[in-house]
């Protein structure tokens, strides 16, 4: 057996070092993807309205856990104590631990968390606001390697979060002190930074030292091929597995979003006289992502205005002909509070309305009552919108803290009664008392009313008796794609013409 020369050994060790460095990079990428997936779960759960540890709240947390790839449980904290998780409520609330590491933007990490409702080794928790998610064991280093390599993730101070094998503490400290890679007496190692953490890879250097000449000649080209392929995988994964923000931005650029239309009926006649445009995001498996999931992300990342523009464009293109042919028909479009306050969308809306030959009065702009920060700016923008001919609807009315002052201060045309008050009809005495007051105020102010979320004949009869003009909900129809909505509209109009006209 011909042993390798010193020069040959150095050369093969350098190739080994490059190979190990590529794995450290791939592990760092896995850390980023895992944390992004956990952050997306937190964004979704923070959008939940009913954070009360009710069966529905726990069910929704459980669904988010199932949808995510990287988390095992979600916990909800109240007054500094863990009170429930996606697995159920806690009989005795558990004090909340202080975070071990701040990641910025409201996120923090808690190390070595022992789950309370299931058995597991200590896990890493990502936390924001009143929620925390437990990251699945091994997920931060979930990278396929050869059997002789050890992968790990640690803080810059040397606290190891996950490790696929064994590694000496002094070796970990040594590699954390380096930015790229190194060759020690026994190991070849490399580290790469990710999200304030250090991902590292370690392999024993002994096989390279004892290799024969023929082994070396065979191994060197192979290692170059594997290393090059690994770099390609890293690049491919980085393009395919983006952060939630980048994924959303790319989806907007590629126009992946669709609009569904929920019919709005005239309660006195049953005729479909309008539709609310509702944005949906199709996913790879065929399901639709609900706006409650991605709208908070769009608002937090500054992408919401681009979504607003896209919705306006799609709606006018799909519904333009229907609006032109039926001048009594209108479309409601949800406008984020920030866009309404700035009014920046109005020139673009005016251009597309003019292009499609639609009367501005056929476009109703829905704004949520709790979203305004600068009320004065909102009033000025709403006045400008109304001056241009658009109708303004206050959405989710009754759920905010300033409902009465908004009714008195904002120039409005219509009021949408929140679904929670419609749900309470005949079931929740406390909320059932609120609905008549809202209806009475709207009548006094001569506002058109839309009852949202009508699902039963009893609810329809109640709001109809109260002289609420319009209604929408599953009793009439769910939100439909544009072609299915047109079919519904045509059937509804045909049926309405068969009814005797007593006017």
Task: Summarize the model shown.
The protein has 503 residues and is of the alpha+beta class.
Q: What is the C-alpha radius of gyration, as a whole number of Å?
A: 29 Å
The average pLDDT value, as a whole number, equals 80
For the sheet with most strands, the description reads: 8 strands, mixed, barrel
State the end-to-end distance: 106 Å
Q: What topology, given as strand order, has the largest sheet?
A: 13-14-16-17-18-19-20-21
Total helix count? 16
Write the layout of secondary structure elements.
Layout: H1 6-46, H2 55-67, E1 71-78, E2 81-85, E3 88-95, E4 101-104, E5 107-113, E6 123-128, E7 131-135, E8 149-155, E9 160-163, H3 169-176, E10 181-183, E11 187-194, E12 197-204, H4 206-209, H5 213-240, H6 244-253, E13 258-266, E14 272-282, E15 288-289, H7 291-301, H8 304-325, E16 330-334, H9 337-342, H10 346-356, E17 363-368, H11 375-387, E18 391-397, H12 403-409, E19 414-417, H13 419-423, H14 429-444, E20 448-452, H15 457-465, E21 470-472, E22 480-481, H16 482-498
Parallel strand pairs: 14-16, 16-17, 17-18, 18-19, 19-20, 20-21
Antiparallel strand pairs: 1-2, 1-7, 2-3, 4-5, 5-6, 6-7, 8-9, 8-12, 10-11, 11-12, 13-14, 13-21, 13-22, 14-15
Helix pairs in contact: 1-5, 1-7, 8-10
């Amino acid at each position: 057996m011909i042993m390798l020369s010193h020069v040959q050994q150095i050369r093969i060790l350098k190739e080994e070092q490059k190979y190990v460095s590529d794995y450290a990079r791939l592990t760092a990428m896995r850390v980023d993807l895992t944390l992004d997936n956990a952050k997306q779960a937190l964004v979704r759960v923070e959008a939940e309205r009913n954070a009360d540890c009710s069966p529905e709240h726990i069910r929704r947390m459980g669904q988010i856990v199932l949808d995510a790839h990287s988390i095992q449980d979600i916990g909800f904290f109240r007054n500094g104590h863990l009170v429930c998780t996606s697995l159920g409520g806690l009989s005795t609330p558990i004090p909340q631990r202080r975070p071990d590491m701040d990641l910025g933007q409201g996120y923090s990490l808690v190390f070595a968390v022992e789950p309370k409702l299931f058995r597991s080794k200590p896990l890493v928790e990502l936390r924001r606001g009143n929620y925390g998610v437990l990251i699945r064991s091994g997920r931060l280093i979930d990278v396929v390697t050869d059997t002789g390599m050890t992968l790990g993730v640690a803080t810059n101070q040397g606290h190891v979060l996950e490790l696929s094998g064994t590694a000496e503490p002094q070796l970990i400290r040594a590699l954390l002190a380096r930015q790229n890679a190194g060759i020690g007496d026994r190991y070849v190692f490399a580290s790469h930074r990710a999200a304030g953490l250090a991902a590292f890879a370690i392999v024993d250097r002994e096989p390279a030292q004892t290799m024969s000449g023929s082994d070396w000649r065979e191994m060197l080209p192979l290692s170059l091929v594997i290393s090059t392929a690994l770099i390609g995988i890293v690049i491919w994964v980085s393009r395919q597995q983006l952060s939630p923000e980048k994924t959303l931005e790319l989806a907007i650029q590629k126009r992946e979003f669709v609009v569904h239309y929920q019919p709005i009926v005239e309660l006195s006649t049953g005729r479909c006289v309008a539709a609310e445009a509702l944005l949906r995001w199709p996913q790879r498996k065929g399901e639709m992502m609900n706006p409650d999931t991605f709208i908070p992300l769009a608002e937090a990342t500054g992408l919401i205005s681009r979504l607003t523009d896209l919705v306006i464009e799609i709606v006018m293109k799909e519904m333009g002909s229907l609006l032109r042919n039926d001048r009594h028909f209108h479309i409601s479009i949800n406008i984020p509070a920030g866009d309404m306050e700035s009014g920046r969308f109005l020139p673009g809306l005016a251009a597309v309305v003019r292009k499609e030959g639609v009367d501005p009065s056929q476009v109703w702009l829905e704004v949520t009552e709790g979203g305004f920060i600068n009320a004065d700016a909102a009033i000025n923008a709403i006045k400008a919108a109304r001056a241009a001919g658009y109708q303004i609807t206050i959405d989710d009315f009754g759920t905010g803290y300033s409902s009465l002052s908004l009714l008195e201060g904002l120039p409005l045309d219509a009021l949408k009664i929140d679904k929670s008050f419609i749900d309470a009809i005949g079931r929740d005495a406390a909320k059932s008392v609120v609905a008549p007051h809202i209806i009475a105020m709207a009548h006094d102010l001569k506002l058109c009313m839309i009852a949202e979320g009508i699902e039963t004949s009893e609810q329809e009869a109640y709001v109809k008796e109260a002289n609420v003009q319009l209604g929408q909900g599953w009793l009439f129809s769910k939100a439909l794609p544009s072609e299915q909505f047109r079919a519904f509209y045509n059937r509804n109009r045909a049926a309405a013409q068969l009814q005797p006209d007593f006017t």
